[in-house]
Amino acid sequence: MSNNTKVIKELSKLTGKDFRVFDSKFLDNNRENSDYMYSVQGEDIIFIGLDLMKLNLEDKVLEDIEKSLSNLKNLKGLSIAYNKNNEVPRFIRNFNNLETLNLQKNNLKSLPDWMKEFKNLKYLNLEYNNLQILPEWLGTLTNLETLKLEKNTLEWNEINLEILKSICERNGNITATRLLSLQAHHNFPTEQIEIIRELEKENTEKEKLGQKVNRINIKVEDGRVVEWRLFEYNIISLPENFGVFNHLRSMIISRSKIETLPESFGELKDLETLDLSNNKLISLPESFVNLTAIKNLNLSNNQLTEIPTQLWALKELTKLNLSNNPFNPEDATISQKVPDLIRKHLRKKATIRVFISHAVVDFEPYHIKDLVDYLVAQKDISQVFFCEEDLAGNIDEWMLDALQKCHLILFIGTQKSVFNSPDCANELQLADKFSIPVIPLKGQDINWPDLAEINLSRELGLEYDKENFNEFFEKLYKYILNFKQEIDLMDKVSRQRGITDIYERFRLMLDETINDMKRKMDDLAKRIAKLEEKSN
């Protein structure tokens, strides 16, 4: 009788269990369900599995089992559930050539340092234990290909993360808590993983309690989150910095009680599909106009009382679902139309932001505060930016931020603003940079040719009447409305094209006028010539 056969008979007698022999390929695929099984290679037992937890054996019997197992000198695989003192059985130390070790369901709280000598270990199963912090040496087992850690209480810390990352970096396989596993595989920037952790907080607590939770439904390409599905999450808002996920192409946040979206949501400029259905949204952030790549948008079953005007900017939109929102009667009808007609309707409704460029000394003489108050009160204008007399802080920074938000600039043209105001000159440069139309309002101490020197032409402007300023304000507002209808102020490309069209029409009118004057002068010259002939 060989030594290995003798060991199996001893173990069978001690445990009261019959051990079955299987080929190593079968056991490689059934490591977690290999109790009382073994495989041989030649005359050597190379794998054995047994569960001693369920047998309620006396300590003397357990010691005899340990002695018998210690005789398996060429053992390469071991699966054991032991649960003695919640520690890894010391007799395993003798098997430092192990390639497979299954220690699941042993109530382990730590791993002994001597396991760092298991340099040949390829597969280690530590599931269903009570591990919180992994030993640093675990990352030095360079042959380790599979590490299973589910159903533990692992802490979120750098030690655990670095160990898991090291295995993933050499194309190994790991299973762990959902968040640790996700970060180990993808190594997201800190700002992004913290947002994911925040949104997964409730599920993480459920996971700790052993409750079933769905996997984190995120798709990653080249280290970037491109798809994300948040379904039935108990959240009412997203973190303010959610825009850091600016490579998202598809986003589903459905049945999740969302009431508001942060302004940074407008930074998700690669979004093509967005499902926000079955939430509690009452409005969209202003920055939503930046999501111009969206083709498919679902806003159904929310609390919108009117169609968000921000949708006018979504030029690629081909599918739009606005059903089951408490719209007013007009918008309820409009919402049934195709996206292009809805966008056309919204463009007319959309409000604009205006910047007033003026020299500080012109604030009082040109009634700037009165002008601001008048414009702000108009339904087509949502906001008016202007330099107050006592404006403090970083003016250049404020100016840059304000101008980029605006659709139109009113330039109060005076001797000071045209010839001696660096701030006004800077504002005109920024207007050109961001393709923001400028309506020049000529003051009384300057002429149109002076404004032409700074590329402001009278065909786009008005003469400022500061004596009858109330009547002038009404005239100016009507002019702005006509300007808004003439040019799509909401879109940069359309603004450029609209301004070009106006200039082209003016040039053609001017050419026609000049040609007509030439013809009249020629006719006049001919008549003078005839009169001279007669007089001679």
From TrEMBL:
Q: Which residues form the signal peptide?
A: none
SUPFAM superfamilies referenced in this protein's UniProt entry, alphabetically: L domain-like, Toll/Interleukin receptor TIR domain
What PROSITE patterns would the database entry show? LRR, TIR
Show where the TIR domain sits. 350-480
What GO terms in the biological process aspect are recorded for it? signal transduction
An example GO CC term for this entry is: cytoplasm
Statement: the UniProt record of this protein carries the keyword Nucleus: no
Recorded hits in Pfam families, A to Z, give: LRR_14, LRR_8
Q: Which PANTHER family match?
A: PTHR48051, RAS SUPPRESSOR PROTEIN 1
What this protein is called in its record is TIR domain-containing protein
Q: Which organism is it from?
A: marine sediment metagenome
